[in-house]
Amino acid sequence: MHALAASVTKPVSAVVPAHDEAPTIAGVVAPLLAHPLIDEVIVVDDGSTDDTAARARAAGARVVLLLANSGKAEAMSRGVAAARNDLILFCDADLTGLTSETITRIVTPVVSGGYGMFVGIRGRKSYWANRMLHFTPILGGERALTRELWHQVPQAYKKKFQIEIALNFFAKTNGHRMGFTVVSGLSQVIKEKKRGLLPGLWQRLLMIRDILLASWRIYAVLQTRLLFQRATREGKAT
């Protein structure tokens, strides 16, 4: 890992969108700052009502403050705008078990130039659940990518939790190689535990709604339109 870091000419900016994540934010910032491939850590405090920002600063991160809760995608956008590097690593702020090895596995494929985006998927307890990842959308907050790919996602699709589906689609559409790895030992504090049972469940339902909406808008509507436009161009060319 350190040999690779010594040869890196394109360092990585880590961006951590966070909303009321005071209990876990320092545990995310610390391993990121300690990693030789990470050049800076930017925590985007998305309208938190607790001391997330203060704890992030104390841990050594640079903090971008949003006065109101604007959603995950907007926080990610603000983090990219503040980043000084062209390679970005996104990490969720409620992670537990983030290690140097995990960071290396996610960022190295992009740092080496082999991939345009690489995602770390939290390991499921079931073998078959992990195998299903080959047939289901690649969803994960821990992903490294190029700034170029980020800017190729239209602003209309940078909304709340829809962003991960959009990144997957536009990576493929624009010819960026994409991959993932299953990471054992990496977990998160679930919404029901953080916010309380009913508020946490409501937030989970809203997240699922965003993902389903994004899947419909992109894979049913947008992809059909793009295929029709391509067929029309090819028809005119002949």
Q: What is the secondary structure topology, with strand pairs?
A:
Elements: H1 2-7, E1 12-18, H2 22-34, E2 38-46, H3 52-59, E3 62-66, H4 72-82, E4 87-90, E5 95-96, H5 100-111, E6 117-122, H6 127-131, E7 142-146, H7 147-152, H8 163-173, E8 178-183, E9 187-188, H9 191-195, H10 197-237
Parallel strand pairs: 1-2, 1-4, 2-3, 6-8
Antiparallel strand pairs: 4-7, 5-9, 6-7
Helix pairs in contact: 2-3, 8-10
Describe this structure in words.
This protein is of the alpha/beta class and 238 residues long. The protein is 50% helix and 19% strand. It has ten helices and nine strands. Strands 3-2-1-4-7-6-8 form a seven-stranded mixed beta sheet, with helices on both faces. Helix 2 links the parallel strand 1 and strand 2. Helix 2 runs parallel beside helix 3 (52-59) and helix 8 (163-173) packs parallel to helix 10. The radius of gyration is 18 Å and the shape is globular. It starts with a helix and ends with a helix. Mean pLDDT is 84; it is low at 125-136.
